[in-house]
Amino acid sequence: MKPLTKNMEQPFPHLFQAGRMRNLALKNRLIMAPMESNLAAEDGSVSDLMREYYRARAVGGIGMIIVEYTCVDRPLGLGGQPQLGLDDDALIASHAELVRAVHAAGSRICVQLFHAGRQTHPKFTSGRQPIAASAIPCPMYRKMPREMNAADMNHVLQKFREAAERAVKAGYDAVEIHGAHGYLPANFLSAASNQRSDEFGGSLANRQRFPLRIAEAVRQGAGDLPVIFRLSADEFVIGGTQIDEAMDTARRLEAIGVDAIHVSTGCHERIDRNVDPVWMPEGWRLPLARQIREAVSIPVIGVGVIRHPEVAEQAIAEGSADFIALGRALLADPEWPNKAAAGRTADIRPCTSCNWCVAQIGTGHTPVGCAENPRTGRETQPQPVFVGSRELAVVVGAGPGGIAASLTLDRAGYRVLLMERQAALAPGLLASGAAPKKDKFLWYRDYLAHKLRHSNVELRLGSMAGVADIAALSPALVVLATGSRDRELAGVDGLDLPLVKSAYAVLAGSDSIRQGPVVIYGAGEVGCEAAKFAAGKGFDVILATRSSDANALSRSTYLRIYREQFIATIRAYPNIRIELGAALRSVSPDAVHLERDGQEITWPAGQLLLAVGRLPNDDLSAGLEAAGISTLVVGDAVDVRRIGDAVHDAYWKIRDMTRRINPQGVAIESVDFL
Prior knowledge:
The chain contains 20 helices and 28 strands. By secondary structure, the protein is α/β, with parallel strands linked by helices. The strands form seven sheets. Strands 3-4-6-9-10-11-12-13 form an eight-stranded parallel beta barrel, surrounded by seven helices.
């Protein structure tokens, strides 16, 4: 790479300097990381929606898009459904349309070639047994694979080469091999999953042999296109790939003609190390990228929880990477590159690593989405329209849902009054961001405050709104985003004593812990976060649940690996004690009394925090409707769910309303106001 120079007119001169891979010139150092989207057509082709999804990121200023995992051998190599394919000439046409759309929007485009290996399920492979380096099941899917033989390997090599040839015919600018995250090439590289005794197992050189042959096959098929290899620098499993081995592999890949190394981490059983949870710090993988970069002379792409342009700029300036890949950050804000280039960093909608996107794909089996950006994965859906009536809309509740409703109504042409009974904006986000290492949620709160300041919305904090108060304003519309309230415990004496408080209220900052020890009753997500919060303040904590099942802790966490790692962080606190099977019976001024297995137990307590669930808080809609006032109820006031559900519920309900009122209205095409 050429030495980096500074342009004083550009706030991030290193980030927006042109770059090069092989003979491919890129306008900046930003790349869209490949991410599963569930947007492919059922036949493996590029759907209209997928094309628009990628085009939106190209319009946003990204230098190059790496299109998500594209199977070279269906159905055996599939890792999900629906999934792109490039194993048939009939698929070339749709890929070519995608290439043309991205080129027309000003970006380069690369396709990632993929074979799942053992990290798949028979429901994806049409019932066929997965293949792998060794007959060792993937710990996530737990399906026994078949050890590959020579014929299998030759077949896979041919499939990778042919897919690369089709990529050339489709017009792609580069090709990436997915050799990370435990998929087939990584499966061979890792001693944890490759226990062969032939020339393809044992020593590192033997374990590298088949992945290197894959790279050679792709190099042959790709012609003069750049070939990128995505590599896990550390799998974070016992016996798995670590940085020293990854550095050696990178050197060998360079020697056979690979043009760039894309440095990632993890595998399926450690998906928390490639789709990082909220508590992983920004840029934590960059030191691994730097070590790989020091081992090779070809460009290195750094990736992983890079949310702010300042972090990306520093990574390139200090030599940790030549390019920066943005993944979930571009789901939250496709315009990230354009805003960074213009110095509008406060306008970048920040990804919080909440992984709402992962829940849509992994457990919802629906198109990719973003908690903060309701149009991600829905780019072809009709937009809200401009009403322009300047009628008054009152929004009650200034959480994410209420703010989304307010900003959308403001852009649609309403006069908007946003009322919040608490003294602070978005108290739910304060609760989400209170526990240690959860401050990314406060990034989003700061962003929403910024958007409100630059809107026409009138905000009233500390403002109680009853039916009569609202009716006196004569609004054309009321949106109730009143959130949720604590579930009440029945049959427990002493809940009116001063030591009893709401765990949620403490997290939200409307109440506080005055003395310990602290007993928290309820071990769902709120209870667990309250335990970490109190322990982080130095209090001794008992986290108690009436369930005898250890899996009851944070049961609502939607992926097993995230839950396991989250619980591990709780157990790591020396001042948190977990008590199972304990049912709260009564409270006295300085103790709590519980029952377990028919025996009464008493613990001293300076504070009892209740975390026994939340219920929708909708006390106003019936009265407003009786008064003849048009009312929409959104977010947790309908059903207690996650931040993204509230934002989406508000946006789409306002969208539908504006289109009913003004069917011929001008569409509000951007969501930059949100």
